[in-house]
Amino acid sequence: MAQTEKKGGLLRKSSASKKPLKEKVVLMYDEIFTTEDPSKCNPRFWEELFLMKVNLEYLEGKLEALDGEELMKIKDNINCLFQHCIQALGEEHPIRVVNALQTLCALIRGVHQKNKSTSGFDIINMLVGFDKAELCMKNLMESLDSLLCAEGSESLKSLCLKLLLCLVTVTDNISQNTILEYVMINSIFEAILQILSSPLSRREHGYDAVVLLALLVNYRKYESVNPYIVKLSIVDDEATLNGMGLVIAQALSEYNRQYKDKEEEHQTGFFSALTNMVGSMFIADADEKISVQTNEAILLALYEAVHLNRNFITVLAQSHPEMGLMTTPTSPVPTTPVTPLGTTPPSSDVISSAELPLDADVQTSNLLITFLKYSSIVMQDTKDEHRLHSGKLCLIILTCIAEDQYANAFLHDDNMNFRVNLHRMPMRHRKKAADKNLPCRPLVCAVLDLMVEFIVTHMMKEFPMDLYVRCIQIVHKLLCYQKKCRVRLHYTWRELWSALINLLKFLMSNETVLLAKHNIFTLALMVVNLFNMFITYGDTFLPTPSSYDELYYEIIRMHQSFDNLYSMVLRLSTNAGQWKEPASKVTHALVNIRAIINHFNPKIESYAAVNHISQLSEDQVLEVVRSNYDTLTLKLQDGLDQYERYSEQHKEAAFFKELVRSISINVRKNLAFNTLSQELLLKEFSTIS
């Protein structure tokens, strides 16, 4: 008997003597694509259609092949198919439901290809017809809600979420997707929360649910009242919030693990061995190429949770027993393969104990630590657009955290000490830090380390001014909290001071190049005012009196940098150019730093002359400083401990619009329904008669 091959909906015998045969479902699709009602000749047409295995490729291809005019001619049949799909969702037979869900996905995607301005038809009218749209969409959303909340098949829930993600992402700009009006009116918010609060559902569908929620929250968020924003902002159920935190932590952990694996693979590879032989001159360039695709979708979900819901802040500090302590289930529930969404989602078994001991501190890890590690990776290389967006979003999230009173309380809590292994960019002039030597410290130290690391490693021609401004703002907000609550943090402040001074030196040495693109005086003023914070209020939050002395020592030791800065801003503030006003602000801000330098330098020179010492040691300089505080006069500067609070709508709307567009395109691109194995589904539903 000749072998039968199946391709593109055709059943073809290997002998070419006979005409190829079409499978039955394809013949039925062809009937729909005529102007006649397919149920006229066969009253059981629709009933039979949903018992047939869906041919997604053929159905989508057929829709895409038609032009707008041809599609309008078969509009009644398309409407009929859409309505019968919705009816089939209420059937008891799961195979019908599965086929209806897959058909809806193909219909929505196929018809949406024609939704261009030149086509002259509306997507809602084409799918359901204006007269029936409200009722049909209400029934669709209610059916999806019931399937998501039911105790039934995990495969059906997976398909429901894929259909919803398909609905949301058919347009690049989700705010132009008019179908979403019906998703706003007929909310599935509670169904999403139920998935996140149940350990089993969360493990199978948590990632899709969180990405879906993040996208829905961004639908016309600045133009109208979005019910998903309102509802997310008031969620206070601990299990639900923890569930959401777990899904986000697992996705970020998976990214961190993949990066660590690639890094180790790179270090043990042939190239690493070769560079060890010839020297380390190329090592920085080589390590820059280690990259794992970033996950903006899950980062957006974290941002929305932190930004909108104050109760979620508590989740950041909660340890995750499921990630580090949970044992692998002995009999895992059979599931269908889940297509990757967003960018790099975790595998479904990501919370098994075998997967997650990423490093020594995983047992005492939490979402904030995982996020800080993720940030330390993506913020290394900001030349790539996705990483630049990810780095910016990481800093925006940290800005929201740094402004929150409760978040600051646990960040600075001496009883909550952690060892956080941040990733450090390989640089020729420094050795790689040994992870084992890291001390346990309050979490705010890791945040400050991350900021210092960014400041030190991004002084380059393509200067990321916006990220630097955010970075300095985060440090400032943390200092404001320490000053207000008199928190004496035992931190290596010298590293921060040194990084800030080096940043000022970089701005000065690249003045001409940078001024062509940026107002560097805004950043310089922020840096100078950080020093003014330490000078004016340092005695209230620096850990010891000697720390305050060390601040003065650093200012005196690096006086040339401050003198050069003063000369530069004085020159520009006395000219009538565009930088006159911003430069003069820096001139005024330097008054106390210059007073310290001008007061102590003569005293140090005098001490050296009297004691016949050509070069003073640090201890000797500190002795001069301590004995001459009394005669130092400083000016009180106002507003050093005040800042403008973060506002998304006024300043970040354009960034989020572009970010959500990018995520929508990515989700749509990775959303493949044909990966759902029909064999697995049939096996799962084999008990059905």
UniProtKB/TrEMBL annotation:
Domain of life per record: Eukaryota
Keyword terms, alphabetized: Membrane, Transmembrane, Transmembrane helix
GO annotation, cellular component aspect: cytosol; membrane
Membrane as UniProt keyword: yes
Compartmental location: Membrane
Record-annotated Armadillo-like helical domain positions: 435-671
Pfam family, one: ARMH3_C
Protein name (Swiss-Prot/TrEMBL): ARMD3 protein
Organism of derivation: Cnemophilus loriae (Loria's bird-of-paradise)
Lineage of origin: Eukaryota, Metazoa, Chordata, Craniata, Vertebrata
